[in-house]
Design a protein that fits this description.
The protein is mostly helical and 60 residues long. The chain has helices spanning 3-25, 31-48, 53-59. α2 packs across α3. The longest helix is centred in the N-terminal third of the chain and has 23 residues, at 3-25. The radius of gyration is 16 Å and the shape is flat.
C-alpha cells in the first residue's frame, strides 16, 4: 500500500474516532465549532495556493 493511502486511512480513522467521541460523550454542541474550523482551514489553505485568493480576500 502506498504512503498516501496510509495517510488517507489514518485520517479516516481519526475522523471516526472523533465522531465516536462526540457520540458517546454527548458533546454535539461542539460540532458547529469543529465544522467552522475545518471550513476556515480549507479557505486559508486554498487562498494561499490558488488564483482565487483575491476573491476570497474580498469576502473578509
Amino acid at each position: 500500500m502506498s504512503g498516501s493511502q496510509n495517510g488517507i486511512r489514518d485520517t479516516a480513522a481519526t475522523m471516526r474516532e472523533l465522531l465516536a467521541f462526540f457520540w458517546h460523550g454527548k458533546v454535539w454542541w461542539l460540532t458547529p465549532l469543529i465544522v467552522l474550523l475545518f471550513v476556515l482551514t480549507f479557505l486559508i489553505v486554498f487562498a494561499q495556493s490558488s488564483a482565487v485568493a483575491p476573491f476570497i480576500y474580498a469576502l473578509f
